[in-house]
Amino acid sequence: MALRQPRYSKEEFAQRGDALYESEVRSQVEEGNRGKIVAIDLETGAFEVDASEIAACDRLEARYPDAQIWIVRIGSRHVRRFLCQSR
Fold first, then answer.
1. Which of 8, 42, 50, 83 could form a disulfide linkage to 68, CB 3.0–4.6 angstroms apart?
2. Is 62 exposed, middle or buried (0-12, 13-18, 19+ CB in 10 A)?
């Protein structure tokens, strides 16, 4: 298995992913999918929605093996949330 190399800097990757989500994907996935994950290929704009990051990415990679994937949690600014509790 060949190691896939990123085509963009971290900043450009994030900018492209956010812009693509807001301009093309969000309106198609937001209703009825709050809290789920959308995996977006930055090259093609193709996407997959699932409750699981891995499942969404696996399905997208099955269709586009060289995908550059950006992940968004629908209805949230963050994919993951960490809860810190003091004792």
1. 42
2. exposed
Whether the Cβ atoms of residue 60 and residue 85 lie closer than 8 Å to each other: no
Note every long-range contact of 20-27, with CB atoms under 8 Å and residues 24 or more positions apart, other chains counting.
20/45, 20/70, 21/70, 21/72, 25/72, 26/74
Helix, strand, coil percentages in the chain from 3-state DSSP, rounded to 5: 35, 15, 50
Tokens 């963009």 sit on residue? 8
At 34-44, the pLDDT tens digits run: 999 999 999 99
Nearest by Cα to 72 from 41, 58, 6? 41
Check the CA dihedral 18-20-22-26 and report its sign. negative
